[in-house]
Amino acid sequence: MEIGYWLLKFQLMFDDKKNGWQDYVSNHRIISRPKSFWPPILAIVGVVIIILAIILFPLVTNGYEIYRHVKSLNNRAGLIINGSGLGSPTKLLADLAATRDDLTAIKYRSSQLGLILYVPQINKTSHSIDQMLTASIDLVGGYEEIIKIFSGLQNTNNEGEVVLNFSTAAGRKMILQSIVNNRDSVEKAKLKIQAARLVLSSINTNDLTGIFKTKVIFANQLLSEVISQSELALPLFKYLPELIGAGQTKNYLVLFQNNMELRPTGGFIGSYGVITLRDGEIINVFTDDIYNLDKLSEGKMFVPVPLPLSSYSSQKYLYLRDANWSPDWSTDAKEINQLWEKERANAGLPPLKLDGIVAITPDFIANFLSITGPITEGDVTFTEQNFALALEQAVEVDYAAKGIPLSARKNVIGDLTKELLSRLLALPPQDLMRLWSVIKKDTEEKQIIAWFADAELQNYIASENWSGEVKNREGDYFYVVDANVGALKTDAVMNRSVDYVLSPDGSGDLLGRLAITYQHTSKAVSNLVSAYRTYTRVYTPLGTQFTRVYLEDKKGEQDLVLNKDVALSSELNKQLAGVFFTIDPNKKKTLVLEYRLPENIKKMYQNGLYTLFVQKQPGTAGHKLRIDLKFDQLITAYHADILPTTFYGRNLVFDEDLKADREYSVKFQ
User: What are the structural domains, with CATH classification, of the chain?
Assistant: First the structure.
């Protein structure tokens, strides 16, 4: 090549100092002008062009098709979200079918991108995206099955338009009957959505890379949430006719639990209501102060209250208002059902068979106000932000100044309930997803718990964690349950944090240290805030050995005597420690329990697995939660809702909240 030729000449000029480079070249005759370099260059360029064509042609052609189908998906999704076609099953089915076709096309075109898919990291990302597309196709297929349920509900005045109208008796009856007639479609939808979840759960987001990593992970999380909500809603949709009285009357007892005065299942039962339904229509709503019913049984019922209530309050006999003492709602509901029958008989009221008992907190109602907007009753406007305090002010303080009798002070709850139900039933279809999101949030945070007389329905809600039951788990477990005993509405100003440390000792036993810190954030307020008086129960795995329990504050540690200051027992297939103590206004106190976990958990750990389930008390706002797991084995894998704040070879630390039940799993070598 010419460049090599001149470089060599230049070098030889200096190598031969006597004769100069021209004589050297002439004498040795080793240099001649090279042939043209263009043919090999052109050959190389041609090969490169061919390679690029092989790579780029499928990339460009299939990439364009992917772009076209993605654009089509975006446009159609916008129309569906805005409500277009919600009244027509034919149009909605067509839209869903087109969406499925677009997703299938994208999935196929993505697999045809050519040699670029052989790049290892791109291959991993492509595989993850392919799994997401498969899950999306299954999800859309599930929704198609649901829409088919309504395909027969045509409006004769406008062919193709479905009568999805719960505001009329005829509309409700048609919808409920259609669900009953098409339960097989619900099952098919459930199977397809379950398949979507299984595919999605197999995706390893750590395989994702590149500039679109964040967006793809966000899409993965969004799809996971949609699938989660769909799985939760579908069985409830299946049981909707039974829930709201298709062809029969349903009576539900609704208990209003005030979580400003915390009790085991959510709060003190201050009011109750009965909602009667038939064919999806609310036949009657009745609410009343719980004391108006309880007082009619005084001197007629002599069931003793649980021992802690009789020990730390003036209450001697059990009435409805104190019937939620067990942290297991199904246990309470059965007790409440019996008390309900007795108290109605004592009040001279006719028997009223209950099909279900539902307990709700003010947070539950406040969350619905975020959808319906503020509600004004009298001179008070109730909003999402002020609901609990405004209601407390109205029924505990302001009623007297307004001349409202004591027995009628809680009538405002009934008025609010009726207006709220009216607004919720009138919501347009496009707001139903928002409504379901609120319901899902309330069930996860246990601001609503339920029990149903129908065994099949009860089994379903138990499986979905709506039933407020104490959970059974094979591994480690704890459940902190507080009961406000005569401390007014002081829970409104109490902050709590829970700190759990697990570590093995020299003999290989697993030791737990659970610290619950209570911070009183207010001064005393007449008839509202006092020193906090709590009977705290801590449930741990059956067979746990409590070794030390003490209270700690600024003054130091105060040891509590086991089986004297600390009531030790077993119930609900758990080991239990119960302690009564007080926290003065603007003070802080920590209850600490130290214990040795049972042999079965130790063996599980020795076999390479440790699990922990932390149960959340209904009605609580969500304590701070810190989990510090110290092991003497090397951690090989773990699973939790969040990433740990600390992760060394043998130590995991999680800092989160207890807004919902939390679960952790750790594997070892």
Answer: 2-35 (no CATH), 62-238 (no CATH), 249-463 (3.40.630), 476-668 (2.60.40)
